[in-house]
DNA sequence: GGTGTGACAACAA
DNA sequence: TTTGTTGCCACAC
């Protein structure tokens, strides 16, 4: 798998339950600013093979991403909604309030856990 | 090497 | 707030 993907997953693994991150934020923390679309690709391809909390990754505006075949009770967005609510994150029509739930990594984590 | 396509983001209107 | 545009970059074709 691509080197960058490993980093993405490591970053995502640090997101605590009850918080979310945006694609761009993951890319930034992984040392690849501006590469948000690559994060989406990484999840699309490996989220089901890795132990990643993919549901904690949303768009920068708080909207749930993965909306293909959405609206339907089997859409990924709905699955994500359920998983997020289990985490204790409020989801109102496909969107979470970033001001309240966006993860703000602490400096210690950045310096000692994300040793890239 | 050109072109189109993304589980995106920033910005303008 | 929603919609368009443009920037991004890896990956097919």
Order of helices and strands: HEHHEHHH
Structural class: mainly alpha
Net shape: globular
Assembly level:
single chain
Instruction: Calculate the terminal CA-CA distance, rounded to whole Å.
Output: 17 Å
Sheet with most strands: 2 strands, parallel
**Percentage of β-strand residues:** under 5%
Helical stretch tally: 6
What this model shows, in words?
This protein has 116 residues and is mainly α. Helices cover 45% and strands 3% of the residues. The chain contains six helices and two strands; from the N terminus they run H-E-H-H-E-H-H-H. Strands 1-2 form a two-stranded parallel sheet. The two termini are 17 Å apart. It binds a DNA duplex (13 and 13 nucleotides) through helix 2, helix 3, strand 2 and helix 4.
SSE order and pairing:
Layout: H1 3-13, E1 21-22, H2 23-29, H3 36-46, E2 57-58, H4 76-87, H5 98-101, H6 107-113
Helix pairs in contact: 2-3
This protein binds a DNA duplex (13 and 13 nucleotides) through residues 2, 4, 22-24, 27, 32, 34-44, 47, 54, 57-61, 64-68, 76-77, 80.
Looking at this protein, list some descriptive labels.
single chain; two-stranded parallel ribbon; DNA-binding; 6 helices; mainly alpha; about 120 residues; about 5% strand
Please give a quick description of this structure.
This protein is 45% helix and 3% strand. With 116 residues, it is mostly helical.
């Amino acid at each position: 798998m691509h080197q960058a993907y490993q980093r993405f997953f490591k970053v995502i693994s640090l997101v605590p339950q009850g918080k979310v991150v945006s694609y761009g934020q993951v890319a930034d923390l992984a040392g690849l600013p501006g590469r948000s679309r690559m994060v989406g690709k990484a999840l699309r391809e490996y989220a089901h093979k890795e132990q990643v909390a993919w549901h904690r990754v949303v768009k920068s505006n708080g909207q749930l991403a993965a909306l293909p075949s959405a609206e339907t009770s089997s859409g990924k967005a709905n699955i994500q909604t359920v998983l997020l609510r289990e985490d204790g994150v409020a989801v109102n029509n496909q969107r979470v309030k970033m001001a309240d739930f966006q993860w703000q990594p602490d400096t210690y984590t950045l310096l000692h856990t994300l040793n890239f």
